[in-house]
Amino acid sequence: MSRLQPRSKAISTSNLSSQSASANPTTSNVALAPTPDQPLFSAPEKIASRTSTRNLASDPASDRSTIFLIRRTLCSHLGDKGRSTPAPIDEILPPLTSSNEVDLQLYAFIAIIIREFVHTWYAKITPDPVFVEEVVKIIAHCTRALEQRLRKVDMESLLFDELPELLDVHLQAYRAANTSINPPPIQTNSREIYHALWPMPALSPVPDQENGPLSQQQRNNETLYRQMLVQGVLAVLLPTEDLDNDCLTTLVGQIFSEMILGNGVGGKASEPWLLWEGIMKIAEVIKAQISTPKVSEPVLKSPDSVNASESSKRGSILGFPIQKTFWMVLQYAFVGFTALRVLITTLATASALPSRLATNKSKGSPNDSSESQPTFSSGIVPNKRPIMKMKIWSTASHLLDLDFRMPWLSAMISMLQWSSIAGPGGLGNTDQIFDKILSHQIHTHILDSTRLPTLLLTLRTALFPNNTLAPPRTIPTPAEALLLRRKCALALLALVPLKVQTLYFGTSDEEQKIADVEEVLDVFSDAYCNKHLLYSVVELVIVRLMPEMGEKGVEELLEERLS
To answer: Where is the PXA domain (predicted)?
Structure first.
C-alpha cells in the first residue's frame, strides 16, 4: 500500500531568485526538499565527517587530547562538581609560568610522568589524591621561581659562550685521550686519561669492568652526587613549610634524581647511539625545511626547437649562450643590490637596537637595576662578553678541524674576528654596531619565546608517543651502532652542498667523506666520557639559575633555610 501513497510535494518555487533561473534557463530551478526516505547527507559525507572528527579527537598532540590527559590525571577530583561545563585548566591548577601555552605543554609532561611513575605504585597504597595535588603545587612553586631566575640569566653568554666551552673541553680531552703516542705493544686506558684531563668526583673511580668493584663504587658515587644536586635545588626553590616535610622532599627528590637525572642524563642520554640518532633526526628535520628545487619533467623537443637551440649555441660568449649570460648577470646584480641595501639598512638602524648593557643602566629604581642581573659575593656585576669573542666560534673551528683542513679559512676568520674587536672603531666590541646586530638576530630567531610551546610539543611527542611511555628500546649491537653512526654522517652530509663538500674535504670520494664525518662523530662514542659533558652541562645551568649553589654547600643551604 505504500506505493499508492502520494509523494511529498516539492517546496514552492516562488521564493527562488530570478538570478538563478536566468543563469541556467535550460535546467529546472526547482529545489526539491528531501523526502522521508532520502537522507540529508550522503553516506560518504557522513563517513568523512565522522572520520575527521575522530582523527581530531584521537590525535595525541592536539590541544583537546592534551587537556583531556591533564584532566584525567591531575584534575579528576577537582573543580567540576556542580558545573554544567568543565572549568578551564588554568582555573583548577596553579600556573606554572606566565604563558598558558607553555603551561599546557608542561602540565602534559607532569601528567605523563605522574601517571607512569607515581600512580603505578602510589595507587596500590592508597587512593587518596592529596599527595599528587601536593606534588603539583610544589612543582608549580618551583617553576614560577625558576622563571623569575631565568629572566636574570644572560642567555646569550650561556648558549654561545659557556656551553660551547664545555663542548670544546670535551673535544680536546677525548682526542688527546685517544691519540696514541706509544708504540703498539704499550696500551693506555683512554678513560683514565680523559678523567685525568677532566676530573669529576661523581664519576670517580674510573670503572674497570661491567660489574667490577670499581664500577659499583663509581655508580654509588654517581647516585650520591645526583641526590645532593637535587637536594640543593629543593633547598633553594621549595617554600619553608614544604622543606620541613621530610617524606615529601624525599619522594620528590627521588623522582628527580633517579627518574630524570639517573635514567635520563646518566642513562640513555649518554649512550653514543642515542646521541647519533638525535643528531640524525635534527639533520633530517633541517633538511626537510630546506626548500629543494623542483625537478622539471622532460619535454619532447620539436625539430624547430632543436634548430633554435642550435642557432642559440652559435651566438655565445665563451661557450655560454648570450641570453643565459644576460639573465645570469642580471640575477647576480639584483642579489648584490639587495644584499647591499640590507647591509646599509641594518647599519643605519643599528643605533636604534636595544643595548646589551641595558640591564646595567637605571631603568627605574636602583633596586630594579640591581635585581635585573645576578651579582656575586663580591658585589661586582659581570660585564658581558662581545659575541665575536664567545667560545662558539673557536668550538666550531675545533669541531670541524679547520686548522688542519682549511688553515687559510681559519686564519681569515681569526683575522676578521680580531679586527672587528681591536681594529679601528671597535665595531665588534660589547654594545657596538656589529654586537648589537648579532644580539638582535639571536633574540629574534633563536631566543624567541613564542617557539617554546612548539618545542615542548615536539619533545613530548618524541619522548612519549601517543602520550604514553614508549616501549623499552632495544640496545643496538656494536655493528648496529656503527651503522647508525654512518646514517648520521650521511644525514649531515646531505645538508652541505656538493661544491662545499669538495672544497672542505678536498676529495670527491663519497666513502672518504663519510669516513671523515664519522671521525668527527666519534667524539661521542664513549658513554663514560659523555657523562662528563652532560653532568657538566647540568651543573652549569643549575649554577647560573641558582648562583648561591656555587658559593654554599647543600648542608649550609638547608641550615640557612630551616633556621
So the answer is: 99-286
Please tell me the pTM assigned to this model: 0.77
* Mean pLDDT value across residues 82-111: 85
Q: CA quadruple 32, 34, 37, 38: dihedral positive or negative? A: positive
Residue 166 and residue 198 in contact, taking contact as beta carbons nearer than 8 Å: no
Q: What would the grid cell of residue 518 be?
A: 664519522
Enumerate residues 6+ apart whose C-beta is below 8 A from 23. Answer: none
CA proximity to 558, closest of 262, 249, 254, 259: 249
Range with lowest mean pLDDT among 320-329, 474-483, 510-519 = 320-329
- Taking CA atoms, 232 is separated from 209, 243, 257, 547, in Å, by 32, 11, 11, 11
Partners of 317 in the beta sheet? 320
How far, in Å, CA of 176 to CA of 173, rounded? 5
Within 10 A of 75 (CB to CB), how many other CB atoms are there? Answer: 21
Set of cell numbers at residue 273: 647511539
Q: In angstroms, rounded to a whole number, what is the distance separating the alpha carbons of residues 155 and 365? A: 24
- Is residue 194 a contact partner of residue 529, using CB atoms and an 8 Å limit? yes
Distance in angstroms (rounded) separating the CA atoms of residues 223 and 66: 34
Q: Which parts of 377-406 fold into alpha helices (H)?
A: 391-400, 402-405
Contact criterion met (CB below 8 Å) for 398 and 172: yes
Could you tell me which of 472, 492, 486, 536 has the C-alpha nearest to residue 515? 486
Q: Which three cell numbers stand for residue 488?
A: 648520521
**Backbone region of residue 374 per phi and psi (left: phi > 0; alpha: psi in -120 to 50; beta: other values):** beta
- 57-61, 140-144, 540-544: range with lowest mean pLDDT: 57-61
Q: How far apart are CA 139 and CA 114, in angstroms?
A: 12
CA distance 147 to 153: 10
Task: Give the span between the Cα atoms of 282 and 442, in whole angstroms.
Answer: 20
Q: Which residue shows C-alpha cell 619533545?
A: 459
Which 3 state secondary structure label does DSSP give 42?
Answer: coil
Helix, strand, coil % in the chain, rounded to nearest 5: 65, 0, 30
Q: Which long-range contacts (C-beta less than 8 Å, at least 24 apart) are formed by 113-116?
A: 113/255, 113/259, 114/73, 114/74, 115/73, 116/468, 116/469
Q: What is the pLDDT of residues 185-237, one digit of tens each?
A: 777 889 999 999 999 999 999 988 777 888 889 999 999 999 999 999 988 98
Question: Which residue shows C-alpha cell 639559575?
Answer: 545
- DSSP letter string over 204-227? PSPP-SSS-HHHHHHHHHHHHHHH
pLDDT tens, position by position, 477-493? 999 999 999 999 999 99
CA distance 189 to 177: 8
CA–CA separation, 408 and 184 (whole Å): 35
Long-range contacts of 34-37 (CB under 8 A, 24+ apart): 35/7, 35/8, 36/8
CA angle at residue 399 from 396 to 404, to 5 degrees? Answer: 105
Q: How far apart are CA 108 and CA 62, in angstroms?
A: 11
Written as nine digits, the cell of 381 is 656585576
